[in-house]
Each structure stands twice: as structure tokens, then as C-alpha cells.
Design goal:
264 residues, alpha/beta, five-stranded parallel beta sheet, 57% helix
Length: 264
């Protein structure tokens, strides 16, 4: 069972299981993808109880599992299957809003492997971006990752779409830089709070006000801008204090919550 709010990670996990279990030629006969909002429990169990054709395994995927209509009888049918599942079937349940206090989730929790796909934290998103790009054979600068996250946010699906555009844009180039992100993503997204921070950090009042005006005109949240600027000044204050104590750059980076690349 895959569950949680990060649907892109869930999709990756489901696809990885399908690819590992079935070769492409047998998927037409042995892969069933069903939706809880359109199916009855008995239909799911019937598919999961069917033997594979010309293959050792069968895969049954049930998306929107939380929407599966479950009467008391249906819950008993599903629980009975989970007690003695067909060994040749890989049953994959997907739910964005599971309730593990109630059936059939209590039964799934008892018998299934549970994989929670949480939304990533900010620092995890940066690491994820780096992994996504480097595993496809290109290098990416920390500044490019930070800028991409600033433009797009933490939605992995939206970030993956922008990565695909970047690969097309850079072509044979082996590295993705901040200028590439600005050219591809920034053209449609406008200014970011990080550009506003940089202008304030340089004490460039005219540029800071121009960026702020454009951000507000494009509909960006004033509250979010204030929160991010407050965080920025808190980090500056921490770094100033740590510098007076002559701590190492690695300690300063950790205590202030700033990536070593951006510490300077």
C-alpha cells in the first residue's frame, strides 16, 4: 500500500513495482489498473484472485482505495482475501487519505507492506532535484537547484516538468546553471523572493522596490514575502552572531540552516 500526499513519489513507486514484476509484453494480459470510486470490493478480489496468463505474476493496482465502497460484507470479503492472498498476484493499493483506524485499512495495515510518501521538506527537495538531474547524466549547480525550487515550489510533479524543459533547452551541455533556469522557468514565473533578498542584501533600494512591485503585481502573497524576509533577517542575525564566536563554516552552515554554498 502506497499512501500519502506526494502523488509523484507514489506514481514512481507503483511504476517501479510494475516494471520489476512484469515484462512489457505480458502487461496487456496481466496488469489491471482500477479505481475505488468505480469498482466494488468483489471485483477487486476477483481480479486479484485470477491466475496470470503466460507469466509468473499478475499485477492489480487499485487507485483511490479510500473511495472503494465497503459494506460490512465487502469488508469481510476483502479481509478474507488479505488473510490468504494469491501468491502470484502483486496487489498494489494507493490511497491519499487512508484511515488506519477503520476497515479495510486496518486489514491492509496488518497484512500489507506500507509505504508512506510524504511531501518533502525544503532541503530534501534540493537534494531530490540534484539526484533527478545527475542520474540523467548532467551536473547542476546548487544555485540552479535553489532557483528552480524558488520559481516552482515543492511540487515534485511540477519540478519534474520543468526539469524536462531544461534538458531540452540545454541540449548537449553537460551542466545546468542558474542562467538556464532563469531563461526557461523564470520567463514565465517572474521574480522570486530570493532575488528580493539579494537586492536587500546589496542595499539596492531601487531594485528591491522594483522587484517587490512586480511580485505583488503578479499575485504573489504579501504574507509569504514577509515570512521569507523575516527568515532571511533571522539567518543574517544568526550568522553575524556565529562569526563573532569564530565557529567553523560547517558549524555556521548547520546552526543557521543555510546551505554551505550560500553561506558567503
Amino acid at each position: 500500500m502506497f499512501y500519502g500526499e506526494e502523488d509523484y513519489l507514489i506514481e514512481e513507486g507503483v511504476q517501479a513495482l510494475i516494471e520489476r514484476t512484469l515484462d512489457e509484453g505480458s502487461r496487456g494480459f496481466n496488469l489491471d489498473v482500477m479505481y475505488g470510486s468505480r469498482m466494488e470490493v468483489q471485483e477487486v478480489v476477483a481480479h486479484a484472485s485470477s491466475f496470470p496468463m503466460m507469466s509468473e505474476r499478475r499485477v492489480v493496482v487499485v487507485k483511490e482505495f479510500e473511495k472503494l465502497a465497503t459494506s460490512d460484507t465487502a469488508k469481510d470479503v476483502f479481509a478474507a482475501y488479505l488473510e490468504r492472498p494469491l501468491a502470484s498476484t502483486c496487489l498494489i493499493l494507493v490511497s491519499t487519505e487512508p484511515d488506519f483506524r477503520r476497515k479495510p485499512f486496518t486489514d491492509a495495515k496488518k497484512h500489507a507492506e506500507l509505504v508512506e510518501c510524504k511531501a518533502l521538506y525544503d532541503n530534501q527537495v534540493l537534494e531530490w532535484l540534484n539526484q533527478q538531474i545527475t542520474r540523467e547524466g548532467k551536473r547542476v549547480s546548487p544555485e540552479a537547484c535553489r532557483l528552480l525550487q524558488a520559481y516552482v515550489g515543492n511540487s515534485l510533479r511540477a519540478l519534474r516538468n520543468e526539469i524536462d524543459k531544461l534538458f531540452i533547452y540545454v541540449g548537449e551541455k553537460t551542466a545546468i546553471e542558474a542562467d538556464d533556469v532563469t531563461a526557461v522557468v523564470g520567463a514565465s514565473k517572474g521574480h522570486t523572493v530570493f532575488e528580493l533578498q539579494n537586492a536587500i542584501g546589496r542595499k539596492d533600494i531601487k531594485e528591491a522596490l522594483r522587484i517587490l512591485q512586480e511580485m505583488l503585481a503578479s499575485g504573489q502573497s504579501p504574507q509569504l514575502i514577509l515570512v521569507m524576509l523575516t527568515r532571511f533577517f533571522n539567518q543574517l542575525w544568526k550568522i553575524s552572531e556565529l562569526k563573532t564566536r569564530r565557529v567553523s563554516d560547517s558549524e555556521m552552515s548547520r546552526d543557521a540552516g543555510v546551505h554551505p554554498f550560500f553561506l558567503k
